[in-house]
Amino acid sequence: MRILVATDAWHPQINGVVRTLTALERAGAALGASFTFITPADFPTVPLPGYPEIPLAVPNPRAVARLVKQAGADAIHIATEAPVGYFVRRHCLAHGLPFTTSFHTRLPDYVSARLPIPAQWTWNWLRRFHNAGNGVMAATTGLAAELAARGFRNVMLWPRGVDTGLFRPRADADLGLPRPVFLSVGRLAVEKNLEAFLSLDLPGTKVVAGDGPARTELQARFPDAVFLGAQVGEALARTFAAADVFVFPSRTDTYGLVLLEALASGLPVAAFPVNGPADVIGSARVGVLAEDLRAAALLALDVPREACRAFALRHSWEESARQFLENIGRAGTGPCLAEAGVTSSDGCTSVAA
Q1: pLDDT below 50 — which residues of the chain?
Q2: Cα separation of 39 and 9, whole Å?
Q3: Which of 156, 207, 250, 347 has fewest C-beta within 10 Å?
Q4: How far apart are CA 93 and CA 110, in angstroms?
């Protein structure tokens, strides 16, 4: 099965969308799927306003048409709602090509945090964007239910996974800081709500791994916290393993891959009881979800690390990729997994309107 994915988020960006699509490509290959990506690297770019380090593509419709034709894909998936995704969507609609989409980012919350634009306006635009396709994939049951309630059609579940070989307990991992170490990992931007973590009165040390436009301000406001900058791969895995509690202060993430990465490292989670953490953790005793984030962080110190690891081992990228491919078949935008030579759990029942 050949799949074309259009995405505005791609390397060298470091975020959940890039990590998800990279893992999908790797795990999907083991299931017999090959992926081609249309990304900002295929077009001229300008700096994204407010995020100058992120390239914003300026697609040419002729270039989009050429790239789609060259891919010769069996199915088309649009991962983002920015220019690359928009122009590929426009091409598909103009030429009668079916496609699926995925909902990765709570864009209405991000936009309203920066601009005087009512969140409902953005939701209305997103609904029109995604409903033009044959189905929209959501990472959690909570998000899927919310999208359906907001009028999104043909919502399908696409759970995430974690690399449990990379992210694992490491007895020799140590940051050399006073313990307990409370860690947060992610982009340093207003929507991540980092000040809710950094303002907590906690023993030991508060550590932040990540970079972004809010870093300078946060470092100035919270000089007692340790800012490690952006980390990936082995360095990030060792940082997770060296901490005692993972604190996730975001109220807007649709999933939070870092939650599974922390748990795979044997690190209990403290977070607000909102969609994302609530869906990933549920009732499992691998963390503490509470509106009092300080109390949650302190209580999480007593959560057994082995329980966190055991929980994460049940979430593989292979199963995530299998569900993605099943969704493609069910939406009627590509061959069923059985036709593609991959064992499917639920056949080829279409959910497309």
Answers
A1: 344, 347, 349-353
A2: 7
A3: 347
A4: 28
Q: CA torsion angle for 91, 56, 34, 99 (degrees, to 10)?
A: -30
Q: What is residue 350's predicted lDDT score, i.e. its pLDDT?
A: 37
Q: Is the pTM of this model over 0.90?
A: no
pLDDT at 324: 97
Q: Where in the chain is the domain with CATH 3.40.50.2000?
A: 2-161+317-330, 181-312
Tokens of 227: 């800012």
- The residues near 143 (Cβ < 8 Å, ≥ 6 apart) are 103, 254, 255, 275, 276, 279
* Amino acid 337: pLDDT: 57
What CATH number has the domain spanning 181-312? Answer: 3.40.50.2000
Looking at the chain, how many residues does it have? 353
Q: How far is CA 94 from CA 2, 61, 91, 98, 152, in A?
A: 21, 11, 5, 11, 21
CA dist., res. 138 & res. 159, Å (int) = 7
Per-residue pLDDT at 254:
79
Please state, in angstroms and rounded to a whole number, the distance separating the CA atoms of residues 57 and 137: 23
Predicted pLDDT of residue 351: 40
Amino acid in the structure at residue 329: G
Q: Which CATH class is domain 2-161+317-330?
A: alpha beta
Joined together, the tokens standing for residue 301 give: 């110190």
Helix boundaries (H) for the chain: 16-30, 61-71, 83-95, 107-114, 119-131, 141-149, 194-198, 215-221, 233-242, 257-264, 277-281, 293-300, 305-312, 317-330
